[in-house]
Structures are given as C-alpha cells and as structure tokens.
Amino acid sequence: MSEVNYKRLKNFSSLFKGLADKELKFISDIMKKKEVDAGKIIINEGETGTELFLLEEGVVDVYKTLTIIASKNEFGTKERSFIRLTGENHCAFGEMALFGSGERSATVKAVTKCELFVIEGEDFSKLCENHPQIGYVVVTNIALILSEHLRKTNDDVIKLTTALSLALSS
Q1: Which CATH class is domain 6-169?
Q2: Rounded distance, CA 97 to CA 47, Å?
C-alpha cells in the first residue's frame, strides 16, 4: 500500500464535503492506497472489519446472503448481488466500521481491477481526537449517507411487504 494524494479526495464529495485542502491533507496522511485484482473479495459478510474503503477506480459488486427454502423442511443460503459500484462515482463502503468493529453487513467483490483508498478505524479515531472539526464534518457526512441508505431500505421493505401481502391474499 502507498500514500494517497489529498487532491484525489475531492472526488469523494459526499464524504469530504465541507473540508478545505489543508484538512483533506490530514485525512490523506492516514490513508493507504490498495490495488485489488478482479475476482478478489474485499469485504466478507459476517467478518469483523475496521476499515473504510473508497473506490477510486474499478467496479465492485455488493452481495448479501439470503435464506431460501430448499424444500418443505430445509432452508439454504444463496448470495445475491444487490448493487454495483463504480470508481466513476467515487463510492465509499465499509463506513460503519469507523463506528465500531462489528460484523460486515455485506460481501464486496472486485469485478475489475480496483484502486482503493483505505482508512483504518483506529487511525480515523486518532484523527478525530487531534482534529475534532475534521471528525465532526466527516462523521456528519457519513450520517447523511447512512440516513439516505436507511430511507431507501425502508422504502424497499414497504414495497416487499406490500408485494408479499398481495401474493398471500391471492
């Protein structure tokens, strides 16, 4: 892994909105650049993780494990791709790891060769202690991102519940 030029962080406007170049430099100082080959798993659902990943280049798929009915008394699991993220959109994933080292909620797999910027949770915590204003701005931006994801998830649950209700009443 190598260093990240702070100017490249301007591409991640949703995450670093409101930060000046000087502040972006502090963030870039704690980041590492990582290249991942196509087909490699970046994050495994259910494993403990402590890193936030920024997708600078490449394409990744995000998978969730679903429980399926194999037969009347048997259940199985199946992975299903829910979303494809591209470096063109400068997406971030794994952001919940900055707030504790809980289990990863999905699997992320490189579809093409990817260039990632990585922030370790412990390094981010130290940055927030030393530069509370930077921490405040980034955490606020992450909260806005997560609340947008939660709103979309709520909408999806309503649609699925309605579809299930209609299917069961037929």
Answers
A1: mainly beta
A2: 11
Q: Which residue has the higher pLDDT, 101 or 154?
A: 154
Beta-ladder partners of 48: 103
- Residue 131 is which amino acid? H
CA distance 25 to 164: 50
Average model confidence (pLDDT) across the chain:
88
Q: What is the pLDDT of residue 1?
A: 46
Q: How far is CA 124 from CA 3, 61, 151, in A?
A: 16, 25, 26
pLDDT, one tens digit per residue, over 38-48 is 999 999 999 99
Q: Would you say 35 and 157 are in contact if contact means Cβ atoms under 8 Å apart?
A: no
Whole-angstrom Cα distance, residue 111 to residue 84?
A: 9
**Distance from C-alpha of 60 to C-alpha of 64, rounded to nearest angstrom:** 13
